[in-house]
Structure formats: C-alpha cells, structure tokens
Amino acid sequence: MAKILIVDDEKPIRSAIREILEFEKHDIEECENGVDALKRIREKEYDILLCDVKMPKMSGEELMEKVNEINYPSSFIVMSAHGNIDTAVSFMKKGAFDYLPKPFSMDKLLSTIKNAIERNTIVVEKRRLV
Fold it and tell me: Where are the alpha helices (DSSP H) in the chain?
C-alpha cells in the first residue's frame, strides 16, 4: 500500500483515479492545484505524487521544481492531456518517474504505480546499506 497524492484541477479525474487506487488498497489524498499540494507535501510524506501539468495557481512543472528544491523523497508521476514528447522528455530530465498521457488506461496507471512503489523500495534499501 502506498500513500499517494493526486494533484489535478479536474475533480472527475481525481475521483476516478482515487476510486481505482483505493480499490487497490492505496491511501489516497487529493489536491486541486499545486499551491495546496505543496502545503500538504511540506506537512506529510507521500510515496507517490501523481500530478497534472496544466493547473491554476501553480503548474505541475512548478510543483515539481519546488519538490526537487526540498529534496522530497517521492516518485513524481506526471499526467497531461496537453503534452507531447517534448513535454514528457522535459519532465523526465527533471526527475519525473514517469509520464502518463491522458486519457490513460487503468492498467497503465496501475502498472506505473506498481513500478514506482518497486523503485521506492529499492531506493530505501540502498539507503539502508549506505
């Protein structure tokens, strides 16, 4: 089970993703913009940040930059209906774990979450060995 923060300005999308991930027994919280998400991130630790690119107040890119500045130990997964290959490459170069173009399938979402959890486990194990 992972602690996941969904950051998207569209409530129907947040709700659909929440329903899928809660069915898989993940602990889910939601924010509708990057500003609110950053406040929560500073108060609580999440395993995965699942974030839209285009949002009011603070974009997904700005949120990712802030998360990187505070060295936040989480997998950042980007989702966007407006992106392209250049957008995906840009996010990956900045440290995103993965990029999901909207609309994405439930299988793709679950596979990406599973891979992020496995990566987080490996990172934690490596830190223990050092």
Answer: 11-23, 34-43, 60-69, 85-93, 106-129
CB 87 within 8 A of CB 53: yes
The b-or-e profile of 33-51 (16+ CB within 10 A means b, else e) is: bbebbbeebeeeebbbbbb
pLDDT for 85-100, tens place per residue? Answer: 888 888 999 999 999 9
Return the sign of the alpha-carbon dihedral for residues 100, 101, 103, 107: negative
Rounded CA-CA distance 35/10 in Å is 15
